[in-house]
Amino acid sequence: MSDKKILDLYQNCNLCPRNCNVNRKEKRGFCLESDQVSIDAALLHFGEEPPISFKNGSGTIFFTGCSLRCPFCQNMQISQNPRNKKIYNLEQFIDIIITLIKKNAENINFVTPDHFLPHIIEAIKYIKKMGYDIPFIYNCSGYQSVYNLELSIPYIDIYLFDYKFANKEASLYCLKNEEYPKIALEGLKFIYKNKGNLTLKNGKAIKGTLVRHLVMPNFIENSIEVINNLYFTFGNTIFLSVMSQYTPTFLKKGFEKINRKITKKEYETVIDLIKNLSFKNVYLQEYIEGDDRYIPDFDRKNMFDEW
Ligand code: SF4
Questions:
Q1: Which of 8, 61, 170, 305 could be cross-linked to 222 through a Cys-Cys bond (beta carbons 3.0 to 4.6 Å apart)?
Q2: Residue 121 structural domain
Q3: Is the pTM of this model over 0.85?
Q4: Which protein residues touch ligand 1 with a CB less than 6 Å away?
Q5: 301 within a domain of the structure (yes/no)
Q6: Residues 51, 5: Cα–Cα separation, whole Å
Q7: Cβ neighbours for 15, distance < 8 A, ≥ 6 positions apart
Q8: Which CATH number characterizes residue 93's domain?
Q9: Does 302 fall in a domain?
């Protein structure tokens, strides 16, 4: 696809499974974003998995808007209620990436990238032409169209791919969307087939797929289904990151079942299954009661308490 055609994709936007088919120059679709790149924060992130943050931090770019819009989103301040939107043109977006590279970022980590993929592709092409050699990361919700993923494949090195729900009822309750389980698994299979498992060089991630799963309160059966699906689809060598950080800080009304943090027992049930299935490449967040260190606050200068 030519350069012009890639940016033209905003004119009839079908970049995610919502398939809004709107012209984003004039109208917003479900993601609430126009055809201009909107970024809330760009920083070196030291709280990603060890091979992603590695030594110097992951050069993380937080886009505003989202095509999934989870009612419990930990990035709610920017994903669904963007305040003081900061819009950048392509040149400025490229400058942001180069600034992170010059700060010695280990990689460039695009968070919630699907609705801005055309700009991401343009920026990566330019940066590669300039001779920079750095892994690019597509850090996504899992609610991805294969069409979008296929477009991204030639440019992206690493996929941090959420697999939030495998169970239809859980997905319907927590996301008001029962298609997510099917769509996420299809997307994951596609990425794994094209990019393979995560590959490390001297401990640093350089390419491949890392699956992330956030354990939700009262939906442990869903987590069990997620782990089983991964095991039976990809085997026990797939890189897996399991998170205990669920915090209902921004939870919308009407989701009482998920209006608490997970218990230690719930988390241990999931970990026991992972151990029983002998997963080889697993990153586990430690369970610490009341621990909020992974939850960003986009209203603060230092978004993360710990880093
Ligand atoms: S990226 Fe946004 S506008 Fe495009 S299809 Fe998805 S939700 Fe709709």
A1: 170
A2: 3-284
A3: yes
A4: 13-16, 18-20, 22, 24, 29-31, 67, 115
A5: no
A6: 35
A7: 9, 67, 114, 115, 117, 118, 145, 147, 148
A8: 3.20.20.70
A9: no
